[in-house]
Amino acid sequence: MASALRHETPFDATLGEGPREIAARGVTISAAPVAAQIAITGDMAAAAAALGAVINQVPPAQPNQIAGKEPYLLWLAPDKRLIVSANADRFELGHRLTESLAGKFAAVSDVSDGVAVLDILGPRAREIVAMGCGLDLDPQLFTPSTSARTLLASQPVVLYPLATPEVKWEPGMSHIPQPPNRGYRLHIDRAILHYLWKWLAQSATALV
User: Fold this and answer.
1) Is 69 helix (H, G, I), strand (E, B) or coil?
2) pTM of the prediction?
């Protein structure tokens, strides 16, 4: 009897039976809870309505902005966006976008198997990212509503801060406080996952 097919994630293919979590003082690194990553390339003005219907928000025209919550959209380039979801079925999401963009100058690609996603969490997450990234990580500038295509350990990544759960308004508050960063999320090509995983493990041991 033939065995059932098993879906292999970038982490399965790259790390094998190795550890799936790096834990050090003040930081934890592991695979992010992401089920689907769908890339859209082409005429973003023509694709705006279809993308907005998926994320329930008007897609931002400004570079490096994040829009939506579940799913959410990353601005990667003037002609490229990435929709990320923790819960959506990747095939259904891709099919929905393909149908919505029919006749538009845009292409839809499921990159879920080709891009690994890591979460670097904890009070010292900023320290470990700063070891290999020249980006200004000042939380007043690099907020959870922004992303960046940058280098980490000389490797190309998409990087953005993650916010703590939203703080709700309560009587007596003059405003709702801006949620502080709780860490960072990285999207990286699966081809460099092994290298970056080793670099992150070594960098974590340097935290004292």
Assistant:
1) coil
2) 0.85
Between CA 76 and CA 79 the distance in angstroms is: 8
Q: Compute the half-sphere exposure of residue 172: CA atoms within 13 Å on the CB side of its CA.
A: 0
Phi, psi of 69 (to 5 degrees): -120, -55
Percent of the chain with pLDDT over 90: 62
CA-based nearest residue to 162, from 124, 203, 116, 119: 119
CA 25, CA 122: separation in Å to the nearest integer?
9
- DSSP summary character for residue 148: E
Segments of the chain scoring below 70 in pLDDT: 1-7, 13, 16, 18, 164-181
Residue whose tokens read 């990667």: 76
CA 197, CA 128: separation in Å to the nearest integer?
A: 12
Handedness of CA 43, 48, 53, 54 (dihedral sign): positive
Where is 99: in which H helix or E strand? helix 90-100
Residue among 65, 86, 88 at smallest CA distance from 76? 65
In single-letter form, the type of residue at position 118 comes to L
The SS3 assignment for 22 reads strand
